[in-house]
Amino acid sequence: MVASHDICETAIIRDIPSVIPPIGNKSVTDFIYDGVPYDLKITSHPDEWKHLAGKMTLEEKKSLAFELYKGADSDRMRKMAEGCRHNWGLNRMYYLVSDQDKWLSDPEGVVGYLLNNLNSKDNCFDIEVHGFNIHICMVEQ
Fold first, then answer.
1. What's the pTM?
2. Cα dihedral angle (56, 59, 62, 67), rounded to 10 degrees?
């Protein structure tokens, strides 16, 4: 997944003129999109969510985002970002690709789908985790 992360991160920075890349090589964020710093996560739908892949409602996306965030090492992330402004290091951009074989058969299409759907309605929203308001962008394929 590291290669797919780097490919998506590079494409977002390269193809969306308003995106600001990270400054320095040990940043707690991958880029700033639409004025919000994000940590990009590339994954697939967890097993219990696979039947909804590509057709989740906004409320279902919020529930899944909460689950994904809580399942991560959120205590470590919270400590790392505690003194930062604008939830730096806490916001997440999730790209969920249901068919991981697409990375091999059509990598350009997978990246293109992310870029074309990032601004779609209901893809960016807020959730609350551990008392923090977290901004999420989620594109699912």
1. 0.88
2. -80
